[in-house]
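Worked Example 4.2. Consider the chain below.
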Amino acid sequence: MAQKDNLQPLHVEISNSEVSANLKVCVTIDLRLINQKYPRKYLKAEDIARELNSRTGEDYWSERKVNKKLAELGYQIKPYQAWQPTEKGRQIADFSNPVPKWSPQVVDLILQQLPQQLRLAV
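Applying the procedure from the previous section yields the following C-alpha cells:
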C-alpha cells in the first residue's frame, strides 16, 4: 500500500496483557484534533490555550502552561524575564514584539506531543 505524505504512523503499545488468537482491536481517533484551519495568521499563548481547550474538550490549558510546553518542545527559552525564541522557534513565531505570536500550526505541534487516549474494544 502506498503511503501518503501527509499521514503519520500511529504507534500503539499494549503491555501487561494476554493476547488470544481471537483478539479484536478497534481504535477510535478524533480527527478534529489535528490539521484544522485557523482564521488568524498569528496566535498569542492565550489564544493557543483557548484553541487547545476547545479541541481537547478540557479546561486544562492556560497561557502559562502553553509557554511551558513550548519551552519543553524547544521553541523558546526564558533566560531572564522574557521569553526568547530558539532557532527552532524563530521558524514558526514572531518575537518582534514583547508578546510572542505563534503560527497557528503550533497548536497541531503541541497536540501531536500529547499522549493520546485510545479506546480499545476487546
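The longest strand covers residues 76-77. The radius of gyration is 18 Å. Compare this with Example 4.1 before moving on.
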